[in-house]
Amino acid sequence: MIYYFLPMILFLGIITSYEDIKFGKIRNKWIILALIYSFLINSILIFHNYFNNSFKVDYIMELSINLLFAIIIGFGFYYYDIWSAGDGKLFITFTSLIPLAMYSLGYQKHYPGISLLFNIFTISLTYILFNLALKFDKKNLKNLKEAFISSFTLKETFFALLFFFVIYWLIESIFTYLNFQNSMFYFILSLLIYLKLKDVNKIFFVMILLSFLRIAKDSSIYSLNFLKNFIIYGMLWRLSYSMIRGTFLKFFNELFYRELLVEEVKPGMILFEDIKRTEKKAKGQNAIKHGNFYYYCEEKNKTKSNLYIGASSDGLTFKDIKIIKKIGFKKMRVNTTIPFALLVFIGVIITILVKGNVLIYVKNLIL
Asked: Is 93 exposed, middle or buried (0-12, 13-18, 19+ CB in 10 A)?
């Protein structure tokens, strides 16, 4: 079946990779064209199988659920500013173009497309680490060490593991009841919930109460095997949070930014810092007065107070740049963008070639 979809996969991958690198955009017309193509080819294949007595309702259900969860992940990651709206739509579209048979290695029932997501982030992390190696020096090594230490402070680590202990269990219980089993999806969903709830007032006490509930009801936790897996996956979960929202994100950003004159800043570029606005200038604050307000730059996502223009993954608009110039900023720090459309395309090609999870493929080669 892959040969029916391969022409559009190659076309979409090439055109979006080129335009993302050249213009920093993933245009909706290519997304819409590919989605229409996917719908038509899948419909033709379904009707062909129906009239040839090889129609399988289970396959259609699995295909639909796979796409549904890809939509949840695609827009969920955009909501949490992990990737841009264009990246999310591109991921959803590629998911619709890949037949389920392409996920046979490490197949995850109900949401096999999570292998594609895993491969994309494996490729992206490899790309980031390669670039880090090219720029690395003693100062960066010190900063990396500090980032690692601050990511695993006792208080933060305890709260994260407590949250993981409770939320992962609740998600697993709910979806198991609904006959949906996909541990990788549980892992990601629990992480997204943590991103949303970690700063909610009194959430710590709620987690304590729910942890006692699990201790009372879940007998599976009373084993050395559970303890070993919980520590390994809990630390990996905590590290994943630090990569996308914590101190590791700040460390990566500091290696992937450049300072430009405001005249050089273009639409689509992503601010390295948030622009804040306040009525009074704080002592020692490096702020610009414009009208009745003071404007200053602050570390991305440090606080939401006084936010004026956020460092969104969608990048700056013409209107944003006009406002920045009007305020009087002379220079701005912007992130060096990653060619994510290309990395997504590479992830898709690798998924098709290995027919599933790339790390399982590598593991099988070695062993």
From this structure: buried
Cα(11)–Cα(7) distance, rounded to whole angstroms?
6
pTM of full prediction above 0.85: no
Please tell me what DSSP assigns to residue 54.
Answer: -
* Alpha-carbon dihedral angle through residues 215, 217, 220, 224, given to the nearest 10 degrees: 20
Q: What percent of the chain has pLDDT over 90?
A: 35
Are 85 and 76 in contact, with CB atoms under 8 Å apart? no
Res 311: pLDDT? 72
Q: Report pLDDT for 40.
A: 96
276 pairs with which residues across the strands? Answer: 296, 307
**What pLDDT is recorded for position 209?**
93
Cβ(338)–Cβ(83) below 8 Å: no
**Which residue is associated with the tokens 């004026």?**
308
Sign of CA dihedral 12, 72, 109, 350: positive
- Going by C-alpha positions, the residue among 25, 134, 113 that lies closest to residue 62 is 113
Cβ(159)–Cβ(246) below 8 Å: no
Name the residue ranges covered by the structural domains of the chain: 2-113+339-366, 129-251, 258-335
